[in-house]
Amino acid sequence: MTAQIDAPRAKRIDPKYNRARKSRNNFEMMAWLFMRLSGVVLVVLIFGHLISNLLVGQGVHAIDFGFVAGKWASPLWQIWDLTMLWLAMLHGTNGVRTIINDYAEKDRTRFWLKTVLYVVAAFTVLLGTMVIFTFDPCISETFAKSLPLQCGAGA
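^ Succinate dehydrogenase, sequence as received from the core. Prediction below:
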């Protein structure tokens, strides 16, 4: 006697759990592939960032305003940090989007959670990009005079 095993997709899925709409594009596959590739690139970018900041030179004690100003004077480090920012935000946003799709049961809840996610991610990427490209290491004399008082280093 043999047992009959149904094909995995032979049973009808309860409609409340069937959220997958048929689409002609492969967005989810591309998102999955992006997560793997961006993860590999991020590991290289992050270790390069950590090595240049912590192991080369005086280590963590040398990181201050002047260190960042000197580093961002080079277009290489601007592009490096910008790439790291963009990839990390896109990677994290895609991961949270997947979690929202998995755990938010109502379409309306899923829509609003993803809307908030995309707005916050876009704001963070925009703000970070502006900081990297508009960073001015030449501070005004008025601000320079008050800097030691603000930092608690004394006058």
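The chain has one domain: 27-138.
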